[in-house]
Amino acid sequence: MKKTLLFASAAGLALGLSTAVTPVAVSAATVDGPSVNWKLSVWGKRRSFTEGVEYISSELEKRTGGKFNLKIFYGDQLSKSKENLDGISIGAFEAAVFCASYHPGKNAPLNVLDLPFLPLADFDIMRKAHDAVYNHPASQKALAKWNAHLYMSNILPQYEYMGRGDVPKSVADFKGKRLRALGGMGRAAKLIGATPSTMPASETYTALQRGTVDAIGFPYSYTFSAYKLEEVADWVTTNMKLGTVNCPTVFNTDAYAALPAQYKQLLEDLKPGAYAAMAADYQKKDEQNEAKWSGADSRIKMIRIPDNEMAEFRKLAGRPVWDQWVKDNEGELPAQELLDLVLKAAGQ
Fold first, then answer.
1. Which residue segments constitute the domains of the chain, with CATH numbers given?
2. pLDDT tens-digit map of 18-43
3. Rounded to whole angstroms, how far apart are CA atoms 297 and 292?
4. Strand order in the sheet with 215-219
5. Distance of alpha carbon 296 from alpha carbon 292, whole angstroms
6. pTM, entire model
């Protein structure tokens, strides 16, 4: 059972981008400028999701001869995950990662990317869709209220569920289950009779272990292993492709404005390599996890929901949920325009 994330072309993209950034590595330590020391806040530990910012941090040091230092602080050392945007707003640190679905009221335009079953088939399409939404004036205006400059997306694979207890073999089996389901995926969960809840990733292990929830919705497959859910889970779905959430890296606007032009350009130049690093690591983790979970001694059952049932689920919780989001936000933001941007990036 071979899955390549949501990213059918992840490996190819990683190779292509790696080739594209080779000249950058050759001309390392050529960007001169003042000494700059930034802190970046992110939760959890180093994982595929953070390989992009790890690449940025490493290359900034190399390309500037150590003059631009971006130090990454993990494990809520600087701020809790739901408070990273607040920390950016007051200048507690210069850079941070946050997930828009953690506090939708603060960044409503970005939530279009969190709708369920969007046709974002691979890494490259997701990047185009995220860039289109992040560059829209409504998104930039919303983040400006938090003194935040949108830099890039930390792209996540499509979500699946990993859970304990009764193994779901159909969409109907999710009725009555308590699910960690963020953003639009939570609205989709309600439509099939499940009870969604929102919690930071750092709280999911304890919630599943104690039975506070029956299953955790997470990006397939690296996140399940990154947060060690496989230690307490009994099953994982493999083909639901529920949607995903968007988690941008942002800079404090004042700190970014103070950078010299050559450092700003360098940050832009490093994006392709950062995306390549994420894609490659997701691919590697998928291969490792699937080999482990499908092994004879694995306790994890890998579940495929019947395709016809998933098609009906997408009809129920796809376009109707998108349209309801547009209606709910009518007059507050250009919701239809934002949705159209996403669909255009997906070739719809």
1. 10-103+122-155+247-285 (3.40.190.170), 159-243+297-339 (3.40.190.170)
2. 333 333 343 455 899 999 999 999 99
3. 9
4. 195-197, 178-180, 215-219, 159-163, 235-237, 301-303
5. 9
6. 0.89
